[in-house]
Write a structure and sequence with these properties.
about 300 residues, alpha/beta, two-stranded parallel ribbon, about 15% strand
Length: about 300
């Protein structure tokens, strides 16, 4: 019995010795496979690190709205608003005509033909969206005015049916006080305006208050739209948000009965000597577009014009 156990143990020992080189080889193969896989990952990763030209940065879109943005910046980037085929608001009889009924197929195309292009300097510039400096606000306002004016020119075939939107301090101050009211009133609603706040500011500035608006609890100065801007963001993200907001209000305002489109195009105004534009961002990241036609201004309504 003892001899039999000895033979069995000896056989097992021999089998282990025979298998040991095989186990060692398997371990070596596994280690080599992992090393090769690791090398492949490093090589693959290295291929993605393409050196960009001077003055070009990678850009990650802000995506407040569905309009596309380039994923690379450039030093001299410019933007424009393109008018989709079948856009129903046209220049007719000296003004922009806005029919009551129309086909909305153009909305889809508007997303295909309009794209934001970030400037490298804007990607690098940080903005406190809750407290814009005057130079930053002026730059954003002029950017928005240029886009809206270009859309007006294209729709009217460059027939000037009213004055271009311009940057002026009175409209900027008016806008800032409206934004301040929204902040004080903690106005979170996405579908209603802070009408009382806006009309109170309008009274303080001595500007025209529409009787129909007062009677029906509406206001006729401020167009508001929500964004996803952070408290501190880049100038490129801010401009992208305003670009998307303008395209949305011009080409996809069906939910608001195209009322914001009407205001941006100034469809109800003819031959204004000037129109002021103010833009702002409130604490809820809502974007404000305040348009003041000259005939609504304090100077006009107080008879201070010459």
């Amino acid at each position: 019995m003892h001899l039999k156990n000895t033979i069995i143990l000896s056989g097992i020992a021999s089998l282990v010795m025979l298998c040991s080189p095989m186990v060692s080889n398997i371990q070596t193969i596994n280690v080599n496979a992992k090393h090769i896989k690791s090398q492949h990952k490093v090589t693959k990763h290295a291929k993605k690190q393409v050196k960009l030209p001077d003055g070009v940065l990678r850009y990650h879109p802000e995506n407040s709205f569905k309009y596309a943005a380039s994923n690379l910046s450039s030093e001299n980037a410019t933007d424009e608003v393109n008018i989709p085929t079948g856009y129903p608001f046209k220049f007719d009889n000296g003004k922009i005509d806005m029919p009551d009924n129309f086909n909305t197929k153009f909305i889809k195309e508007s997303y295909q033909i309009n794209k934001f292009h970030p400037k490298t300097s804007d990607v690098n510039e940080k903005v406190n969206t809750r407290s814009l400096t005057k130079s930053q606000q002026d730059e954003i306002t002029q950017y928005a005015a240029n886009l809206i004016n270009s859309a007006r020119h294209k729709i009217s075939n460059n027939n000037a049916y009213t004055a271009d939107l311009t940057l002026d301090d009175n409209t900027t101050n008016f806008t800032n006080d409206i934004v301040k009211k929204y902040n004080e009133d903690h106005w979170k609603s996405a579908y209603t305006d802070d009408v009382k706040g806006i009309n109170d500011v309008t009274r303080n500035y001595g500007m025209f208050l529409c009787p129909y608006c007062l009677k029906n609890n509406i206001q006729n100065y401020d167009q508001v739209i929500h964004s996803k801007l952070k408290n501190v963001d880049s100038m490129a993200h801010v401009k992208e948000a305003f670009y998307g907001a303008i395209c949305t209000m011009l080409f996809n305002d069906d939910e608001y009965s195209w009322g914001r489109t009407d205001k941006l195009l100034s469809a109800d105004f003819l031959n204004e000597s000037n129109e002021g534009l103010g833009v702002g961002i409130d604490n809820m990241s809502k974007l404000h577009f305040v348009i003041v036609p000259h005939s609504y201004s304090k100077e006009y309504n107080n008879g201070e014009d010459n």
